[in-house]
Amino acid sequence: MSEIILDVRNLTHHFGIGKKLSVKALDNVSFAVKKGEIFGLVGESGSGKSTVARCVMNILKPTSGEIFCEGINVLNPKEFKKNKKQLEASRQLIFQDSASSLNGRMTVREIVSEPMKIHKVKPPRGTFDAEAEFQLFYVGLDKSLLDKYPTELSGGMRQRVAIARALTMEPRLLVADEPISSLDVSVQAQIINLFAHLRCEHNCSILFIAHDLSVVRYLCDRVGVMCKGKLVELAPVEKLFASPRHPYTKALLSSIPIPDPRLERERVMEKFDYDPKLLSGKLREVSEEHFVLWGDEE
Ligand SMILES: Nc1ncnc2c1ncn2[C@@H]1O[C@H](COP(=O)(O)OP(=O)(O)OP(=O)(O)O)[C@@H](O)[C@H]1O
Ligand SMILES: [Mg+2]
Question: pTM for the complete prediction?
Answer without folding.
Answer: 0.94
